[in-house]
Fold this sequence. Notes:
The complex is a heterodimer. By secondary structure, chain A is of the alpha+beta class.
Amino acid sequence: xxxxxLQEVKDQNTNLYEHLNNLLTKILLDNPKxxxxxxxxxxxxxxxxxxxxxxxxxxxxxxxxxxxxxxxIQQKTLKLINKINLGTDEEPQEATQTGYLPNLIEESxxxxxxxxGIDENYKIFKALTLLSVTKQASKLRxxxxxxxxxxxxxxxxxxxxxxxxxxxxxxxxxxxxxxxNTKSYWACNDLLNDKDWIELPLITPQQINTSRQxxxxxxxxxxxxxxxxxxxxxxxxxxLKAQIVRITQSTVIIPKGQYILRExxxxxxxxxxxxKLPGFHDLKTLNDWxxxxxxxxxxxxxxxxxxxxxxxxIEPEAYQKQIENADPFExxxxxxxxxxxxxxxxxxxxxxxxNPLSKDTNNKVNNGVIIIKSLVWPGLVTxxxxxVLSQLYYGYGYKATNNHFYPKQPQQVQSEQPDLPEQPxxxxxxxxxxxPQD
Amino acid sequence: xDISFNDLKFIQQIxxxxxxxERIKLKLAILKIQEHYTFDEVLFWGxxxxxxxxxxxxxxxxxxGQYEFPLKKFYWSSNNYHFAELPKYxxxxxxRAENLREPFTGQHExxxxxxxxxxxxxxxxxxxxxxxxxxxSELERLSFVVQQIEFQCASIPVGSYRLxxxxxxxxxxxxxxxxxxxxxxxxRAPIRKDKQDLIARDxxxxxxxxxxxxxxxxxxxxxxxxxxxxQRNITxxxxxxPGYVTYNNxxxxxxxxxxxxxxxxxxxxxx
Lengths: 438, 271
């Protein structure tokens, strides 16, 4: 009797009895904790979604496509995590050897103390291992992540040992392996796609100088045009490489004393003989750290260009002195405390000195973490703890500016000269051939 | 962000996180806020980094009994993890602070602007007494920046809250949204006419997107919507206030700010 009564109250498709059935089924299936508060909510949802009691075990199509997508992603992830297999499934081919790659998992623990979280660090690590095998790159490391508007870039730094033909380079471009193009960088959008690591191209001094005048947020697509003023002649991959090189050249720091200047050639450095990484207490202030890399000169290169054909009457040495005075080198291994307002240093973690296991109690163990962050390139962080030194960049790829950035105004387009007023054509009478005079 | 800090993996997509010490101390300190003032929820809002010290911000939300939009109250603390209420800021000087590009120092008494006001009053003996001028301190700058970020950026996915017949907001069972910008809305009392009308006509009770949509924000490119490699963990980042993230996956959602408190006011020139 009650059932018939409830079936009277009806809409087009359903009636109250069915609605109550469907509603209670949904609540029983979902089993939320605060079902009482959400009762009206469920009623509304069931009405709008048309949930039916009989079809409770059918997935709707949206769920099914989600599951398919999940499956393909899980398969790709599995392939990444498994042992590297360069062949196919039937004929597995092991990777022969990989270059040096620091253990990102251990370093992530240090970075967590610094407040830097490396998402998916295991996948990055495996992807880098694969890169090291396929491109035969030595001294590979995870350089960092540059966030972009549509996608982000994961960047790896290393030295590629496979021979690459660059073709004819203009004379001012520093060739591969020297100057600003010493290290190679690879960028990747999607970690699960191993073909995605693309090596960034060589850059020219003009590109470096233009990149110093613009401020740009990357889109995430390496082949995009960069529309700025002054115009950047190159695609996003060139600008990306230029920014990466600028960041690396000005922010890599090492403890004082690890390298010394070479005698006679103050621009070169050698590892100091018999050097041991200092303990925690010796690195607590900014004075203990020095720059490792050379600065990029104003001309956009690391060393000046001496043209092969000098104008007459000028000696090569005099010419070299002249351009060096105009665009001087900065001292190598200069301490970072000289850079005004450029660094901040923090100490976190457990800073108690523990006695080591061996009887020698002079070398105490300290697990404190020293963090140095750059204020000029926000996102650059160096961590040091227990003899492990590491550096990473997680940012947008532009410098911190004190002023609002305004791009340079494009030059005035000169107005056309007004046309000269038209002059009437000179109208001489037609020439009459002169009669020969007698 | 919930104080169980299970959601930190989303913030790691922009490279930020809280270390062990911060998590433990923040959780304790935030629970202490509940002792003095009972909110429906007390969440961790974010961390503003300074040169010497950092600031941690917590937010208490009261849903019940609030008509139209819940009440939000902000608390700040320095590295001593002792939360205090975030004070009001001086409105005139605050607008100048919006485009400041110097980093926060971490000292909350640090003076950002010297104000020229001096408060004079005359007591009965007609000797004017002058109070020392109250300068615009870094704490006020922090307060202003937090309110601005909350107003301009704070956003939630569509379908996460609904409006009850008494115009209170309550949380719904959240099932996830597709990663599209139209599926996100501002977590503030609506200021746009169409949504206000919707609420006034009570149609908002049956709609999921009754708050200001992010699609109508200008410039539209300030929002960057990305997923991680599993394609399930979605983060929506803001490029004008870099460090702000709204995140969700199929089970949870939230937002937080992890940055240096400096606005990219020249954003339009960076594209």
